[in-house]
Amino acid sequence: MVEGNQEQLFPEGVVLVTRRDLAEGPDLFPEELHAMARATPARRYEFALGRRCAREALALLGGPRVAIPVGRFRDPVWPFGYVGSITHCHGLCAAAVARTLPVNSSCAIRGLGLDSEPAASLSEELAGVICTANECTWLAGRQGDDTPWDRLFFCAKESAYKCLFPTTHRFLEFRDLGVRFDPEHGSFDVVLPSLYGSPSHLHGRYAIQDDVLLAATTWMEEPTRP
């Protein structure tokens, strides 16, 4: 399945592609094959599916068909002028890609974060590691909901981290980030610690597709004027 820009997760200018199968088989570049030389067959398939999504998203933006190597910290290395994020869960792979300065837009896109997780609750012990005291209090008030909010906190924070890391190269703990959900609008805000070169907060959206949670975060800012 290939989808263009999905307004429920990303703003205009971002292309999201999702797939559950390769159909035509893997089409990895030599450097990508080298990165997966010691991986299991299942991991190689998952990796190839993610790269297929990423290249299709780049093509929809008019971008080049190039390798997307594995970086020093195992993160995707995007071609110059583009940012993106790849995720996979329960057989679903997805990639979001954008130009760093979208056409017909006054805002630069500095980063994208996309994360997918099983639509199932966390253990109480793990939820305590993921969530701040305020978030645990909010969770207590949502008991009985069908939505696994504790897992969504994990998913949202992962998406924010993936959005920031390619620029900041700073490792963060889950409780370094504060998330506030707006269930009525399917969105969330992330309050960030003070990091050089990063914003003070990010905005994101979430969705549930079958048995998978998706959280998407976009870092946007006005470009510097001469």
Q: How would a crystallographer describe the biggest sheet?
A: 5 strands, antiparallel
| Unreliable runs | 1-6
Query: SSE string, helix = H, strand = E?
Result: EHHEEEHHHEEEE
> Largest beta sheet: what is the strand line-up?
4-8-7-6-5
Instruction: Tell me the number of helical segments per DSSP (H or I, 4 or more residues long).
Output: 5
CATH class: Alpha Beta
What portion of the residues fall into strands of 2 or more residues?
25-35%
Percent of residues in helical segments?
A: 25-40%
Shape, per Cα inertia axes: globular
What is the second-level CATH architecture? Answer: Alpha-Beta Complex
CATH topology: Ribosomal Protein L22, Chain A
What report would you give on this structure?
With 226 residues, the protein is α+β, with helices and mostly antiparallel strands. It has one domain (14-221): Ribosomal Protein L22, Chain A. The protein has helices spanning 30-35, 41-60, 124-130, 133-140, 149-168; strands spanning 14-19, 82-89, 92-99, 108-118, 178-182, 187-191, 201-209, 212-221. It has a five-stranded antiparallel β-sheet with strand order 4-8-7-6-5. Strand 7 (201-209) and strand 8 form a beta hairpin. The longest helix has 20 residues, at 41-60. It is globular and about 50 Å long. It starts with 13 loop residues before the first strand and ends in a 5-residue tail after the last strand.
